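The passage that follows is intended for readers who have already worked through the single-chain material. We present the inputs for a multi-component assembly, then the predicted structure in tokenized form, and finally a short commentary. You are encouraged to pause after the input and sketch how you expect the pieces to fit together before reading on.
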Amino acid sequence: MSDIRTDQQTILRIDDLGVSFSTDAGAVRAVDGVTLSVRRGEVLAIVGESGSGKTVTAKTILGLLPETAVSEGAVILTSRDGASENNVIALSRQRLRQVRGTDVSMVFQEPSTALNPVYTVGWQIMEGIRAHGTVSRADARKKAIEILGRVGIPDPEVRVNYYPHQFSGGQKQRVVIAMALVLEPGLIVADEPTTALDVTVQAEILDLLRRCRDEFGTAIVLITHNMGVVADLADRVAVMYQGKVVEEADAQTLFSSPQDPYTQKLLAAVPYVGQGVVRAAERAEARSPEWAAQTPVVVADNLRIQYPGRLGRPGFVAVDGVSFSIRPGEVLGLVGESGSGKTTIGRAIAGLTRVTDGSLTVLGHEMNGFKERRFKHLRSDIGFVFQDPASSFNPLLTIADCVAEPLVVHGRAANPRAARARVDELLEAVQLPRAFGDRFPHELSGGQRQRASLARALALEPALLIADEPTSALDVSVQARVLELFAELQREFGFAALFISHDLAVVDILADRIAVLYHGRLVEEGTGAQVLGSPRDPYTQRLLASLPVPDPAAQAKRRDELRRLRAAG
Amino acid sequence: MTRIDSPPRRPSRLARLPIIHQLHQSVGLQRGMLVAGLVITALFVLTAILAPLVAPYGYSQLRGPDGVFGAQQPPGGAHLFGTTVGGYDVLSRVLWGAQTALFVIVVAVLLSIFAGVFLGLVSGYFGGWLDRVLVVVCDAVYAFPSLLLAIVMSIVISGGKSDLVGGVMAAAISITVVFIPQYFRVIRAETVRIKSEAYVESARVLGSGNIRIMVRHVLRNATRTLPLIFTLNSSEAILTLAGLGFLGFGIEPTAASEWGYDLNKAISDVSSGIWWTSLFPGLAIVLVVMGITLVGESLNDLADPRLRGRRAVGANAGLVAETSVVPGGTLTAGPGGLGGLESGPLHTNDGEATS
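Having made your guess, compare it with the prediction:
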């Protein structure tokens, strides 16, 4: 661990912090002997997998731990002017309230829940100002308008009277940051500030946080699991694993020469754009010339899907005039931000959402005018992997029962017990021990559950697999293994796949061809080399430039490129 | 309810059963409430089953070997609780009354639970016009005063007065009508939530039929809150039965013993200083309702992790503070299961002392 600097430059010093929680299953220690320090105007990133204790550490800094937690050690927080020094852990509730906002403040993960929907954003910012000292309404309002302008909200004089729902997700996060900045604290704790945002918006928010540091001189403790974000913003990085800090170094050193084996593994697991180009080219070459002439598994022709609106209002068009096709054994990667219609397309292919207009042919069956009874016999040829492995299994059935379900439904086995031999084979195919079949879903980790989910989808050896963000709920290291497994299974079983993701780098690893969706329209389609190597559409270019890479030097270059693109567009 | 009586010998399977699982989970005051409720309820059920053995006389017995009991005899001697104005033995009437009450609960809850769960499942799963109609009908039933409905039902079924089966059925069916909407609403709300869960969608993608999805995936996950409503409704059923009896729509004393009827007949005694005819049936009603409500309310609190969590902390905080100063605390503390169980009574004491 680094030595503890106690000079004037240190704004936060965490000394041998330990936090334990009382749970239904007894005491659980979340943070164990963490020692860290943050200097003025410095960005310290704390990275780690879920459950590594990074969020608990951050919450301790603000004294926001729930009553079930017991903490020891010291968290020494210095005020911006250096006049006062407080140990947050030992503070009374009243003193803690004074420290929050003035000395340290927080930016939350989900901006839409961090803002109260029934008050205007101006009121909420003013509330923070007036909670600390007597300020007149007019002065507080003036201050709120000023801070909104400084975080990049256009027309702050007007927008100050807007309600949260009138802002977009990125703007809401700007407002949350404005609330954090308004009392000019010396330190901001940002807990996954960009995780809930799209990549292009994420880049803007990261820019804003960088300005917080440069213009306001605020130190930032950045909690994130995204190594790209770390490379983009952090000056120094602390890697946490199982409640301990395993490595602490400045960003350049950490990315160029990680010392701890865990850090090395973590960095190696991060996907980057360009990884899959070689593999995709190999696969393309291996295909016979007649392959291109084969009947595609899925053909979408001018596909249009509209969700019905409320009475008297027009419906929402989720997918608008999209055409593509998936040939046998081919993996099509579908990339887009939230609301681009990528999930809707996946659901339409599986017959979960109705097609409004145009034509969608799945395994030779026209989905426009869909009838469950006529489609049912084709369902055994379609596998579906859902985004959230936690909710895609019936919590009351064992894994073996869940995996056997498709076999029973389609009459390949009389009951789950008769299907057990095949289930064991499938579990082995996805690298799960046979004994896991007798466990219940909640007894498996996220990655294991997603592998079981793959086993269920492959039980009937489908010709087509739809994977809707199968790895976005998983940690980076687990994601890498699931992706590897997916590629292996695809080689082995040879199914065609629609792989839906918001992450370009993930899609790049697996896909033969990549399709980019934007606002329900297909803006670009081609092989990985074409789309990611030399994107033609301005949106694809922006998307690609917004994706932070886990390398501080390269990321700095990309940042300039993005700025140029934004200025041009 | 009878499964409470069996001791938890094999925690692996038994501990997963409702009520026993909650008993393991609870600490402090909550555990005290739950245990008290369970004891009272178990006593009630045992009394009802063993009434023929425990009661000194029959419910409609007017004379013993020594001749007629006599009306309004004070407690003592051959009649521990005295006799009523009609000349019945109060103790025997109270004990036999438990049987009638249990009978009504079982019939009423069985009838309403099946109808309510079925309607709720179908309505929530398929939605559409059927759902809308059923919701409106259930809301309309809510608007009825349940006692009024019960009176109407008892008149329709038995002309107001009747024998054991008729009287019990009248009470049970009227209670059923009121309770079906409750089960319907809970199951429907759960079904609507579960319907959009990924595992139901995944079953649909697999091509499972609607009935299979409803039975295998939705129903089993939707019934988690049933023990809770079940207990709360049981106590309400007893009150409705007693209310009916009190108003004179109950069961004839020759057909069965009923607490509400006895209370009704005891009204005039109260002013003339004869307290035993009203006190004991009244006490029986209060005790049973309280016992079952205690169980229900405890289950309710324990089902909510936030309510449960907060109370568990107060009792558990010392333990965690101790482990957190020991290096490698979690390893020595172990998963709380057995240790938490054994220190249960200790926590109860703590909880009472601090509250």
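Commentary: Chain B touches chain A at residues 25, 197-199, 201-209, 212, 216-217, 220-221, 309-310, 312-313, 316-317, 319-321, 323-325, 329-330, 333-337, 339-340 (CB under 8 Å). The mean pLDDT of chain B is 73. How closely did your sketch match?
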